[in-house]
Amino acid sequence: MTTSNLSLQENARIDFALYLRRRWSDVLYPALNTQYELEADQSGTSSLEATENIVTNLPVYPWFAWMERGAQKMLWRSVSDVVEAHPEEAIDGGDDTEELELNPSLKLPAWYTDWDIHVQPGGVWRNGASARVYELGAKLVMLGENDRYGFHDSFLETAVPKRTYARIVDLGCGFGKSTWPLKKTFPQAEVIGIELAAPCLQLAHRKAKEQQLHIRFIQADACETGLEDQSCDLVTATMLIHEIPEDKLQIIFTEAARILMPGGLLRILDFQNTGQPVRDVVMAQHGARNNEPFMPPMMNADLNSMCDKAGLVKSQWVAFDERGTGRLENLSWPDRAEWHFPWAVLEAEKAL
User: Fold this and answer.
1) 321 by DSSP, 3-state: which?
2) In degrees rounded to 5, what are phi and psi of residue 346?
């Protein structure tokens, strides 16, 4: 579903929520940062704990905190109403095919179903409407800057080496927005998307067929894909590991190493701390306000050590600029006044 086929009133509701989020990012966040700098200069504070204490007592903070969650809830209400008003867009579930492998007996983990991730009511896994809400909302959660999924194109263009890949596996593929570009970029490769939510896979499969992309979508846990040992040349994951409990992260890295061929590559696009006190504090709080409880532990975990333990070598984090530059050379972001996700790429490869 796109906003181009919506009514003027429907677009107006969505635009209001979107522009409210943008002003939260480019007006309230800079104001918060300015107020913090004045207070910090007087107190000489340096620790994150002291920074959080100052930030949460700033005059603009209640507005910043409320609008982050309030605008997010408003966005999902608007999108949910739009999806409900357009039943003609409903997903045709269809039967299993060679390119859509559903597993009705798969028990979804409690850590996945207990949280309405991103504050999307009911999560992304309940039914076809959930997947369609997720699809439309995903374009807006990133402040409307990912309408055509150019973010994912930039990831592939700048962070994934140009090689001949026989098989590529995309972990946590959702409704396919990170998987379709893999097939477009590497058409000779067998591309497989792994995802827990059946409705998302059904939508991903339908959209792939519309684009004449032959992609294999499998309902499975990224911790246990069911794929053969040493059968893949590239494993990717986009916006996945910050949704995973810390005690499951090692399992995912071990699974990625198991299915990778020696010399195969791992590329994960997610978040890391920036070293900027206010930005890191509000990002940790974002995990709470956005119903993403596993985000702060992931961002503070030693994932390089997890890679090493799994047999993935040369692991490193580098920053990623979603505005077009893509992968940067180190874990340092350009100066920006507005709030933004601290995107970063975790790079590793399977030991020979």
Assistant:
1) strand
2) -95, 120
Q: Is the pTM of this model over 0.85?
A: yes
| Residue 74, in any domain of the structure | no
**144 has a pLDDT exceeding 60:** no
Can you give the residue range of the structural domain that contains 290? 150-350
Which residue reads 């209400």 in tokens? 77
The domain that holds 284 is classified in CATH as: 3.40.50.150
3-state helix, strand, coil in the chain (%, to 5): 50, 15, 35
Q: Do strands 260-271 and 343-350 pair parallel, antiparallel, or not at all (unpaired)?
A: antiparallel
Residue from 134, 202, 149, 137 nearest 180 by CA:
149
pLDDT reading at 212 higher than 70? yes
Compute the distance between CA of residue 144 and CA of residue 23 in angstroms, rounded to an integer.
12
Write the DSSP symbol of residue 224.
B
Q: How do residues 279-311 score in pLDDT, each as one tens digit? A: 999 999 999 999 999 999 999 999 999 999 999
Burial class (CB in 10 A: 0-12, 13-18, 19+), 164: exposed
Q: Is residue 314 part of a domain?
A: yes
* 48 burial via Cβ count (<10 Å: 0-12, 13-18, 19+): middle
Q: Is residue 235 part of a domain?
A: yes
In sequence order, which ranges of 198-242 are alpha helices (DSSP H)? 198-210
Domain count, the chain: 1
DSSP bridge partners of 202: none
